[in-house]
Amino acid sequence: MRPFWRRRTTDDFAAEVQAHIDLETDRLIGEGRSPAAAREAALRAFGNVTRVKERFYEAGRWLWLEQLGGDLRYGWRGLIHNPAFLATSVLTLAVGLALVTVAFTVFNAYVLRPYAVRDPYSLHLIGWRAQDNGGQRFRWRDYEELSRRQDLFAAVVAESTRLVSSNGRPLAIALVSGNYFEALGPRVSLGRALGGIDAAPGAGPAAVLSHQAWVRMFAADRSILGRALDVNGRPFIVVGVLAPDFTGLADMPRDAWVALPAYAAAAQPELVGAEQPRSLEIVARLRADVTPARASGALSPYFAGVMTAERAVRATVTPQPTANPLSLEMLAVLAPVFAAFVLVLVTACANVSNVMLARALTRHREIAVRLSIGASRGRVVRQLLTEGLLISLLGGGAGLALASWLLRAGTVLFVGALPASVAEFLRITPMPLDHRVYLFALGLAAAATLMFALLPALQASRLSLTDALRGQGSASRRGSRLRATLVAGQVAVSLVLVIVAATIARNGAAVADVDLGYETAGVLSINIRGESNALASPLARALESDPRVAEVAVTLNNPLFIRSRRVAAAPADHPDAVPTRFTFVSPGYFPLLRIPMTGGRGFSADEARSSARVAIVSAATAARFWPGQDPVGQTIRLEPAGDRRIEEIPGYSRVTVIGTVPDVVSGFVVDGPDAGHIYLPVAPDGKYAEALLVRGRSAQDLGPEALQELFRRVAADPQVFEVLPLGDMRTLQLYPLRAAAWIGFVLGLVALGLSVFGLYGVLTYAVSQRTREIGIRMALGATAGAVVGLVMRQSARLTGFGAGAGLVVAFGALRALNAAVRFETISLLDVSAFAGGLALVLASSALAALVPARRASRLDPAQTLRADG
Amino acid sequence: MSTRSDRLALMQGTLDVLILRTLIFGPQHGQGIARAIQETSDDELLVEHGALYPALQRLEAQGWIAARWGTSANNRRARFYTLTKSGRAQLVREANRWNRLAAAMARVLGPEPEKG
Questions:
Q1: pTM for the whole structure
Q2: How far is it, in rounded angstroms, from Cα A271 to Cα A281?
Q3: Quick check: ipTM above 0.90?
Q4: Among B37, B38, B53, which would you mutate to test the A interface (most chain A Cβ atoms within 10 Å of its Cβ)?
């Protein structure tokens, strides 16, 4: 069919008809007739001119639409006549489509959806890179310098995000430059956005709320304007509320925005003072005629000038239209995840395809009649595809509804499964079903139609007319082979998903069983947000003097939060230093965590205060450096690890070992116990004291209120301290593993359910086709057991093929997966995961086969033989 | 028009082949095609000229023929149809099919029964 704009006009066609009649008239005149007679004869030979023009009109414009309409009407009537078929197919598809749509919606929210601002595609994130360092944090004065570069940028905005306290609860705020809202232009739903006047000297403290925070904190109260928002005990007047679609220039939504100069004036003068912290992210709108490369070239000299400590500094200018711009690496990680979701949809399609194949067989007669009265095969295929499209559009609609429900339920589960201490300051980006999701769902439904309806349609249109009209399904042999392949494929897919999920779960369980080597119960970790560690010492003092606190320790980095820093070490007289890790801990660290000394002694308070050159080493380090000897009293040498400069450890060229401790998990639980570790002493006021560990006398004693009150004595903003029970951190580390296993299991079980369904359908159909054969067998003396065996053998063949293929593919998938996420703790070919998955799939298949098998065994031979000859 | 009722009515699909076949000899307009069909079949085949146009339209939509306006031998404007490459292939396929069908029909019907 031509596109409408290239279709011929009726005028053009009328001209052609006129030309025809004129030519014919000319010819007849040439034969010697009079002009009038010639014209009459020409018209007669042509026939009904109006009718011909009508047909042109119909064919050109409306026929295809009319045919589609007819197909839809006809398809709908057929479907409505068979509500069981319609409901099963629509629901099956809805499940498959919903799962893929959920995956896409999350992907869309984090990766595809551009910021809801004006012209998001001109936004670029500014960063810097040096020889062995890099970052994206800048000072206020860097922002001021960049905003003067009007030769490069149409606008430059700065933003610094942080958690503050608002009536004792964490509040995620962004401190922004005065031009932020004007330059970005997000929609405002109530009041006004911040402007230059809010950043001017002497401006009153004003705040803009996010829609989500407005709903959560103020129950969407429309009289919020003019009321005060508590920011660390200081009132900021709410002047506006943003529309729901903008939550900040990152994937972690902000609760409120405040002008940075106003915040600095009220709470933190150094932000704009002489010693400005590097805490701003700078986003620039590139001028249309400037490329990122040119901008970074133009900025590099300035960055090199202000970062004198670094070598080979250059600026980076990267497009940032969405929170996480799409990259190849990201696709490589996400592709297998998405593939797992798509596999479930494929299983669902296989099911519907199977039912349609069976239905097409029962419709042989109808299709044969249509073919024999002149329908082209293409026309029949189109009719069947239209039916498929109808089913998948219904399925897609139901799938979207299901997807939106799944997203809400999933978010609740996701947050609910997190430790409360983490959930409190976690904000989840809105995941709307926007036009991209709708388009995707539509395309997906169309693709699904091709997946499930094309095969049956082609199959049906290829039938032999004479056989079909006589009522014999000779095409059923090929049809049943196709259906067998589909079912075997389904079994394979579900086995793959179940085995992968089981392996991930087994891996997760193995990681969860890892003995940390210390006691987390009752221990709180306190990290200091931001860059200043000046608060560690006063906080340690405040905690030590508090009667509710039993023990306090300070460290360079608390266990379970990050891997300890890398260093190279060797016995002092040994030439080759080997990579290992180290941290600084105060004398109270080992007793607080209940880590026993296995040799020598712990640090003394004097050693901590004087930064004495003494060390405690882990069992693994001791065994490596001095196998079979007593490490206590030995000396070691510390060097920078690899090519990275470590300025932090000057002068640790000779350190005396004074004690040993067992191997513990200091970094990530998945890594297992440290392969080597060195502890150096530090006091609370030392340079390397950046985090604290506290153990209360009892759990209730150090509740959130008590801590907030304690923190407020030390710092203006209690949210500068990040408190997390150490046990929660372990839960948090295991969380992704657990979530992956759960998602895998859900996908696997849905796929398994679908394939059990499919197998059941195929066998039921096969039994109905073999009724006569089974009747004869029984008449000849086959027992019920033998008949059950017959059907079960057929089922076993199907599942056998599927399971075999599934096992191979599962192993391949795990190997691929292992490249992305390492299964440290268990082998790839985890016997119990494979055996368990196989047993589950085989058992459910057997169960699916048992019903048709038993039905077959209860056939009455007399009846089946008497039935239609 | 005494001979008219004796002429053969066209079976479905026949016209398409006839048109394609006619265009083998070069571009032709609708009236020319109609004449050519009648002449080459010795006036045996009944073609209502108007019936040609839906067929031409169909063939054009399939891409088997292409059309453009031009000038006829006696200097009248007319729409000329040309056989395309895929049209040529289609003609070979269809001609084959017709020959086979005709042969099969002839076998089935056997020798013409004697009159009387």
A1: 0.75
A2: 13
A3: no
A4: B53
